[in-house]
Specification:
With 330 residues, the chain is an alpha/beta fold. Helix 1 packs across helix 9. The longest helix is centred in the C-terminal third of the chain and has 21 residues. The radius of gyration is 21 Å and the shape is globular.
C-alpha cells in the first residue's frame, strides 16, 4: 500500500478535499490520509510514500520530521531541504539568470546586530553603505520587505530616502531588501504543480482580501503563454512541486514579484470555487503520479535545475518550458 499523507495546520477545506479526491480515484494500493506522527526516530522510514507539506514553514519540528522521512525515501512535496535553504533575494537572483524579469532589488544588513554579535563581527561590511548608489539603482517609490518569509508582514512602501531611513530604523534584526515598485497595469497569481501544470488566475492585490480574485484583466494569448513559460521556468529552476508565482505586467513585460510560496493559499473561501476545484483536482492527480513512481528507500525528492546543474558542474542556464503542460485561466 502506497500512502499519501497531507501535513497541515489550521486550514481545513483544501486538505480534506484533497484526501477525499485522491481516495475517490480508487487507484489500486493508493490511500490518502492526514499525516499521523506518534514518534520520530532517526533514520526510521515513515509510513508514507508521499507527504504534501502545508505547515512545516511554521513548525520546525515538522520540518525536521520531513527531512527524516525524505532520507528514507518519502517523496515530500515540497523538498524540505531546498525549502529550508531558499529565500526571496536568492530567488530574484536566480530569476535573472534564467531570463525571467524581476524588479531591481538590493539586500540590506539588519539594522540591529544579531544576538551574540557586535560591531567587531562586521569587519567586512562598509559603513556607511553606498546609500546613494542603492537609491539610484532601485529608485523611488520602492518597497522594503524581509528577504525571507511570507505574507505582508514588515512590508513598507517608501517614497523617499527620508522615509526609507525612518522605517529601516524600525526593522530591528530583520534582514531586509529594497525593491523597485512595479506600477502594473494587470496582475496574475499562478499556481504551478509538478513544475508543469499551471493555473493562471486574474488577481488584484490592491482590492480587499475577499475581492482579490474577482479581477478580470484583458491580455492576449501571447502574453498568457509568456507568463506560463516564466512560471514553469521559475518552478523548474527552484525545484518546487507546489508553488504560486505572482506576475505584474508593466509596459508589456511580466515581472515576477513573489514566487516563493511553497504552501500557497488554497482555501475555497479565498481563491473561489473554480480555482479551488482546479488545485484539488491537479494536486490529487500529481500526488497519485508521485506515489505510483515512488521507489522504496531511494531519493524521491524533486531537485531543481539550479541544484542539478550545479551538481553536474554546469552553468545556470535558461531551461526551455516543458512541452507537457496544461494552462488554464479563470
Amino acid at each position: 500500500m502506497k500512502k499519501i499523507g497531507i501535513l497541515f495546520g489550521q486550514e481545513r477545506s483544501f486538505p480534506q478535499a484533497l484526501v477525499e479526491r485522491i481516495n475517490s480515484r480508487k487507484v489500486k494500493n493508493i490511500l490518502a490520509e492526514a499525516v499521523r506522527i506518534d514518534k520520530v526516530i532517526q533514520a526510521a522510514p515513515s509510513d508514507y510514500a508521499v507527504i504534501i507539506d502545508r505547515i512545516s514553514q511554521d513548525v520546525p519540528f515538522y520540518r525536521a520530521f520531513l527531512k527524516n522521512a525524505a532520507i528514507s525515501g518519502t517523496a515530500v512535496i515540497n523538498n524540505p531541504f531546498w525549502w529550508s535553504a531558499d529565500e526571496k533575494f536568492f530567488n530574484n537572483a536566480l530569476a535573472e539568470k534564467i531570463g525571467v524579469p524581476v524588479p531591481k532589488t538590493v539586500l540590506l544588513p539588519s539594522k540591529e546586530h544579531p544576538d551574540d554579535t557586535s560591531a567587531d563581527s562586521f569587519s567586512n561590511l562598509s559603513f556607511p553603505l553606498d546609500w546613494e548608489g542603492i537609491f539610484q539603482y532601485v529608485g523611488f517609490p520602492a518597497f522594503m520587505k524581509p528577504f525571507a518569509g511570507g505574507g505582508w508582514k514588515h512590508v513598507y512602501k517608501l517614497n523617499s530616502p527620508e522615509e526609507f531611513f525612518q522605517k529601516y530604523n524600525e526593522t530591528g534584526q530583520l534582514v531586509m531588501m529594497l525593491q523597485e515598485e512595479i506600477n502594473f497595469e494587470s496582475y496574475f497569481r499562478c499556481y504551478c504543480i509538478g513544475g508543469k501544470y499551471v493555473r493562471i488566475m486574474h488577481y488584484e492585490p490592491r482590492n480587499p482580501h475577499h475581492l482579490r480574485y474577482s479581477a478580470e484583466h484583458k491580455v492576449g494569448e501571447e502574453m498568457m503563454k509568456k507568463m506560463e513559460d516564466y512560471v514553469i521556468r521559475l518552478n523548474q529552476g527552484l525545484g518546487y512541486d507546489f508553488n504560486t508565482v505572482e506576475l505584474a505586467i508593466r509596459d508589456g513585460i511580466p515581472y515576477a514579484i513573489d514566487f516563493c510560496n511553497p504552501a500557497p493559499d488554497a482555501d475555497i473561501h479565498s481563491v473561489g470555487r473554480e480555482n479551488f476545484e482546479w488545485v484539488v483536482e491537479t494536486a490529487a492527480n500529481y500526488a497519485i503520479e508521485r506515489a505510483l513512481s515512488h521507489k522504496d528507500g531511494q531519493d524521491n525528492l524533486t531537485w531543481g535545475s539550479f541544484i542539478s546543474q550545479a551538481a553536474a558542474g554546469k552553468k545556470v542556464a535558461a531551461k526551455p518550458a516543458s512541452p507537457k503542460r496544461t494552462v488554464k485561466s479563470k
